[in-house]
C-alpha cells in the first residue's frame, strides 16, 4: 500500500503522514488511534514498537485524590470538581498512560 493510499485510509494528509514517519511531527491521540485502527493494532502496540515506554506510577507519596482531599487551600466545591476531572481522565474511555520517549543516542550522530 502506498503512503498516499494509507493516508487516505487513515484520514490525514500525505505530507502530514510523511512528517510523522520522519519524526518531524508527533501525532495527536486521534491520529494515532486512526493509524492503529488502520493497521489493526493498538496505539500501545505502536508506542512499544517505537521504543516509547509507558511511565509507571510513582510508588511513593499520596495519591492524587488523597492530595486533593487534604489540600487546605481548596474548598469543597473545588475538591469535587478536581476529583471529577481526575476521575474522567483516569477512568474514562480513551484513557491512556503517559509515554516516555527513549533517550537519544547522540553517539550515532558522530
Task: Report the radius of gyration as a whole number of Å.
Answer: 19 Å
Domain tally? 2
Helicity range:
40-55%
- Name of the CATH superfamily of the largest domain: lambda repressor-like DNA-binding domains
Decide which structural class fits the backbone. mainly alpha
Q: Tell me, what's the shape?
A: elongated
Q: Helical segment tally?
A: 6
> In which order are the strands of the major sheet placed?
1-2
List the helices and strands and how they pair.
Elements: H1 3-10, H2 14-21, H3 29-38, H4 43-49, E1 53-54, H5 64-70, H6 76-91, E2 99-100
Antiparallel strand pairs: 1-2
Helix pairs in contact: 5-6
What does it look like?
By secondary structure, this protein is mainly α. It has six helices and two strands, in the order ααααβααβ. Strands 1-2 form a two-stranded antiparallel ribbon. Helix 5 (64-70) packs antiparallel against helix 6 (76-91). The model has no long low-confidence stretch (mean pLDDT 80).
Give the structure's gist in a few sentences.
By secondary structure, this protein is mainly α. Helices cover 51% and strands 4% of the residues. The chain has helices at residues 3-10, 14-21, 29-38, 43-49, 64-70, 76-91; strands spanning 53-54, 99-100.
Protein traits:
434 Repressor (Amino-terminal Domain); 6 helices; two-stranded antiparallel ribbon; mainly alpha; 110 residues
Amino acid at each position: 500500500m502506498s503512503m498516499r493510499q494509507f493516508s487516505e485510509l487513515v484520514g490525514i494528509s500525505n505530507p502530514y503522514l510523511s512528517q510523522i514517519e520522519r519524526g518531524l511531527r508527533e501525532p495527536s491521540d486521534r491520529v494515532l488511534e486512526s493509524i492503529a485502527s488502520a493497521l489493526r493494532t493498538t496505539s500501545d502496540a505502536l508506542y512499544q514498537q517505537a521504543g516509547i515506554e509507558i511511565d509507571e506510577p510513582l510508588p511513593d507519596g499520596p495519591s492524587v485524590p488523597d492530595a486533593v482531599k487534604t489540600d487546605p487551600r481548596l474548598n469543597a466545591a473545588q475538591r469535587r470538581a478536581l476529583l471529577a476531572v481526575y476521575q474522567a481522565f483516569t477512568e474514562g474511555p480513551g484513557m491512556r498512560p503517559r509515554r516516555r520517549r527513549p533517550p537519544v543516542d547522540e553517539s550515532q550522530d558522530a
